[in-house]
Amino acid sequence: MKRNFYVSFLLMAGFCQQAMGQTAANQRDSLNLYFGNLVKSENPADKALLQNKLYDLLKSKSEEDWLTARRFFYQIERINTSDSITKAAKVAFPLGAVVRDEEVSAVYNEKDPVAKEKKFKAWIAKFPPAKFGSDRIVYDYARNSVSSAYANADNVKKAIAYADMIETGPWKGEGWASPAQVFVKKGNFADAARLYKKAADNSYKYMTTLRNQPGAGFAASGFVSYSAALADLYYQQKKYDQALYYVRLAHDSSKTVRAGVNVTYAKVLMNLGKDKEAFDMIDASVKEGQATREMKDMLRTLYAKVKGSSDGYDDYMVAVNKALAEKTRAAFAKQMIKQPAPGFTLQDVNGQTVSLESLKGKIVVVDFWATWCGPCKRSFPSMKLAMNKYKDSSDVTFLFIHTWEKEENATENAKKYITDNNYPFQVLMDLKGADGVNKVVSSYKVSGIPTKFVIDKAGNVRFKFTGFTEGEDAGAEEVSAMVELAKKAG
């Protein structure tokens, strides 16, 4: 069960102290902080100092020093230098982390579980974990891959055995949840329930007794998902009392309104004859813009049951939507900025050239994304709703800029994804230049995707929004609020 696209980053950052002695870890943290401050500095002398420090690191016989230099060269957009370090590291450290992390792809790419297990064992023999300190997350990812492959092949015993091999405490829940998810699809509810319970119990420990351990935040964040999965599992089996227990745990532990949790909660309540409670549950979701289409259909039925008639339902929905719009607009009004938008000229996936300059006089919504970015793609239904709202408007334009490509045929892949999913998006390609830099995304100083910008008619950035909001209505309303505020700004 993959929960977000920052998983690898969070884990590696969160568990770094487990890979080194405490003193060495503190020294490394101080060095990273020092280099990070030099990266942020606008003083050219600081940039020159940083480069000298990074070149000094490359004189070391430690691969870790080389990789630190590689990371910071990348951050200052010396991409070719960063790539050169990677190539050199493969030669200098043939049994090091760079080669290890590259060769594990053979495990991931293998589909047959028996062959995958064989490749995993060969890989782990070549790169024994003990050689790399106490950090095990790279190995745990590979074990999870083998586990999932066996789960898909209906080899329950092997799937669970590899899931149980996960060594990184905060990631154990993910290790158990992955095969559990497969078991549910295959109707193996008993084993799925056992694994989800282990995952939930592990998360609960990191919410309580282990809450100060490295990675505790990540582990604890899985509790809602695992409990909700258990609730849905029991709901499918019509075990409504058990489903109610776990969905209540998920709901009460969540810090925000979650559509997936609330829809299960409402369905369980309806099947237990608790229509008023079910209505209140969906009503809360609708008011936060978190209602799915299924929930809206349920709400119409529940409204008639609770109110005694469907009369007034349409007025109720109008009032709810109006309140959501006003709430969202008030929140974003406080976030308005005014900065000149960097200009760009790019080709779209059909070869048409588009420049920002040619769009002066229009509100332009720019969405930086990539085909490999899960959150980017999950935000697209909301973006489609927002676009549809302005489909008849001549002064609002949406541009979806594909960037940070990871494959040679990025343009074809981007076009295929948009076409296959029937998204009415104009996709521009911010491809790497000869220096290895994606120039447009760099000029906008984007550090993570998805990131959206709303540019006013005069060419000023009025809003910058990184990440995405769960709930199609909420996400679309946020974009709409930014557009309307940008219109009023001039």
From TrEMBL:
Pfam families membership: AhpC-TSA
A single BP term in Gene Ontology: response to stress
PROSITE patterns registered for this protein in UniProt: THIOREDOXIN_1, THIOREDOXIN_2
Keywords: Redox-active center, Signal
Thioredoxin domain boundaries: 335-488
GO molecular function: antioxidant activity; oxidoreductase activity
Signal peptide, first to last residue: 1-21
Coiled coil stretches, renumbered: none
Gene3D superfamilies: Glutaredoxin, Tetratricopeptide repeat domain
PANTHER family from the UniProt entry: THIOL:DISULFIDE INTERCHANGE PROTEIN DSBE, THIOREDOXIN-LIKE PROTEIN HI_1115
Protein name: Thioredoxin domain-containing protein
